[in-house]
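Each lists chain and fold; for instance:
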Amino acid sequence: MGELVRLTLAGFLGVFRGSFGFAVAATLAAAVMLTAAPSAANPKYAGIVIDAKTGKVLYEDNADAPRYPASLTKMMTLYLVFEAMDSGRISRNTRIPFSRNAAAEPPTKLGVPAGHSITVEQAIKALVTRSANDVATAVAEFLGGSEARFAETMTRKARQLGMASTTFRNAHGLPNSAQKTTARDMARLGIALREHFPQYYDYFSTRSFTFAGRRITSHNNLLGSVKGVDGIKTGYIRASGFNLVSSVSTGGKSIVAVVMGGKTARSRDAHMADLIHRTLPKASTGGDRMLIARGGVAPVLAAALPRSAPVPTERPEEIPVIAYAEEAQGSAARAALAAAPVPRPQVSVEAEGDVDPMRTASTEVKGWVIQVASLPTESDALRLLNETSQRAPTVLADAKPFTEVFEKDGRIFYRARFGGFSGKAEAWSACEDLKRKNVACYAVQN
């Protein structure tokens, strides 16, 4: 055992930097010896390390066992904040108001009084460093209308990212028996944050910021202490134990690691440092590639959709694709569709909460576009745009999904289209590529 401690300590001294020094490294090395077989000694434990360049699993233990995410939940809250910023719905300077409900959340919190507001950038830093519960609720109410509806959007986004075992019921991670995840799902979310929002990812390396004259410091003790660690998030509630997702980039290698169920913050940090030390040498030094699809539709939605909507290959008279719903669901859907009220034009899908919001143009896109279907509801159109983006991510990498409303025979329908092409030749070429993937389409000048 003495030799094992010596070797572990030597490994720590290779990865720890700055203020930790020899004494802290020795303490953490000893802590690792107490958790050498985490899953055997701790029923709450789960862990995984994934090579962020290849997707290869470098370590796993109980990685698919259900766990409470605690404040790791705020990773998804931040994902949706970044998505809203990326789409132009909000900016860093947008003000987020605090309701009485948000202000009343228990610590850890920023302590903003009801009726006051903070900027989006302040909210991001408060979530990353202080893990502020009041800020998480304020963000949820601001973006989702209510925290419950925002949590539904969080769960839909989880499905879209392939997090099949994750359900959210709130935006902060405070105790809720129905709020579950797995170490593997949290690793996927960590990778998605890095891949999808590189322009905002540096926020996760924030070690402190000043708010209302106070210096707010990060709960993430590995920042600046373990070589290469650049984020992401800590979390704790009594039911979960101490959780941590870490991102590491150094020496041309990149990994995302998850530890859940630590008995103390110190033992969790020590185990994470040990995992980084042991798995980083196995990681690839190859080129980066996208591991988590951004525009995909959740499997539960994709299963309900036909593999390709029945649309003409040449531009015909506009015929709404009623058969789309019929083929997916049969005669019951046909009867329901016939009896359904005419959808209202200009309805916001985010406000209705039907499907996961995807970035779409808010106004009609001019120039050459590709149409993949005309559908009876905006929700159907957005679902198909999501599915098509997932099936042809390379073809549509720079395309702009959008919907257009039109009326036929007294009913409202929605065109599902992609724009952003430089001209006729590019649009036609993209459509041909889609057809080779069994996606029916036609190119048209808008």
